[in-house]
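Supplementary notes for students who missed Thursday's class. We covered one full example, reproduced here. Read the sequence, then the structure, then the short commentary at the end.
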Amino acid sequence: MKRVWVGLILTIGLVSGWAEEPLSRIGFGSCYKPEKSTPLWGKVAEFDPQVWLWLGDNVYVDFINGQYVKSNLESKAFEQGYERMAKSEGMATLKKLPADHVMATWDDHDYGLNDAGRNWSRKKEAKKAFVKFWGGEQRSDGVYSSRDFGPDGKRVRVILLDTRFNRDDPGPAGDILGSGQWKWLEEELRRPGAELVVIGSSIQVLASQHRFEKWGNFPKAKERLFQLIRDAKARGVIFISGDRHNGEITCQKDSGSGYPLFDVTSSGLTEVSSLREEANSMRVGNLVNTQNFGAITVDWSLPDPVVSLELRDADGNVQEKVATPLSQLAPPKG
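Structure (token representation):
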């Protein structure tokens, strides 16, 4: 997709100082079939995000003519999928944002095969199509990315992980990120300057009691992730995730980071699970069984800025919300 308009708007944004204004409104979501219409995008427009994050299953390239293709994906599936995405309500809603204020990672259905990992035979083709549409660095080992937004003292770092390209089969010693991405992630967590670090993962990081895909299926990798946060003394880390076709906010108080870790799961933009309840002893509030998008707001005007984590529905209601002072998302000094 050619994005000439984005370049023009980016130039205007840089001239006006948009790129360096404090980032106070982040929107995100996952699990979107672009051929479907939904009033949710009207509510995204009302929220008016400064940055939008696509967390995977942004388009279902393996869903063709109303059916999932479990094998023998046709040769033009990726091309056709992104053609649908280019014409979607979602892209139309976000068209005013500069290119570098829309970030994306993928999950299995835009990767091309349900629950697929590093052994997917068409992963290089999938990556080529993804990068052509979304932009980003030409990495040999996936589509992970990071960007900083806002001025000194009010800077937000967004890190989007790739949980597909290098992922092993699930198991106690299974890896998710691959050596190159682990090294890169450590550098991003240690890099100074960010007051808030938003880490996007296509699959849930904290929730572990359900039977579906999650970091909990890779316990060694999950502990390595927590250890990186501890060792880097990274402050303000918040996870966001998708995949599940429902939404929830999970909080783990004993991760060892020195402060509570939250995972805000927003899914789906169009897809809703028939599952009405499931176990999650760390859930804050209720499971959200309706179309939803995630919202992070930061009130930088306060002496101790307040970070609000929300799940919003197609009627404009805030289904779940957690608000916490930024000072409570910092490791102990010393």
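Commentary. The chain has one domain: 4-9+26-293+301-329. The longest strand covers residues 292-299. If anything here is unclear, bring it to office hours.
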